[in-house]
Amino acid sequence: MRQRCHYPGDIAYKNYGGRGIKVCSRWMNSFESFYEDMGDRPEGTSLERIDNDADYSPENCKWATTPEQGTNQRTNRLITHNGETLTMMQWSRRTGLSKHVIGRRLKAGWSVAKTLDTPPHGTRADNRSAAKLTDADVLAIRASDKKASELAREYGVTYDNIYAILKRRSWRHI
């Protein structure tokens, strides 16, 4: 943390110190102060800045898991739909559309509602819903040696849904 914020020779300096991100003087001068403020690091977490444009300080840091940190990156594209704001990747998981489809639609001038509510090209919303799959279906899909396109036709879902299942980007709970 101190290196990337205060040492121009650090490989990550351009993304931290180079952007004006600093470590507060309390932490810069004393690990004990850092430990007093943050406590033990919970297993599976690392330090995250709540506001990516602000310094490392007690009021701007927390312990977070890798997936939690993945939603708090300055490169994320946030999309608000029906009063809910998620990253493009979160909308991709929620809708079954690939993030590339979502990005292409928005770039083409589609509204957010049309982008997220329209099923992938060549599918019909009434019979192509990943919500129709059961846990047993997902296990069978993962065990199959058929092509993703064949599985999509067989189960009545999109290729993107099958691909996400096979890559464990969706249905991770099983």
Chart the SSEs and their pairings:
Blueprint: H1 2-6, H2 25-28, H3 31-38, E1 46-49, E2 61-64, H4 66-70, E3 78-81, E4 84-87, H5 88-95, H6 99-107, H7 112-117, H8 135-143, H9 148-155, H10 159-166
Antiparallel strand pairs: 1-2, 3-4
Q: Could you characterize the architecture of this molecule?
A:
There is one protein chain. The chain has ten helices and four strands; from the N terminus they run H-H-H-E-E-H-E-E-H-H-H-H-H-H. The model is unreliable at 123-130 (pLDDT under 50). 17% of the residues are buried. The longest helix has 9 residues, at 99-107. Helix 9 crosses helix 10 (159-166). The chain has 174 residues and is mostly helical. The protein is elongated, with a radius of gyration of 21 Å. The strands form two sheets. Strands 1-2 form a two-stranded antiparallel ribbon. A two-stranded antiparallel ribbon has the order 3-4. Among the domains are: 2-70, no CATH class; 123-174. It is 40% helix and 9% strand.
Key terms for this structure?
single chain, 174 residues, mainly alpha, two-stranded antiparallel ribbon, 40% helix, 9% strand, elongated
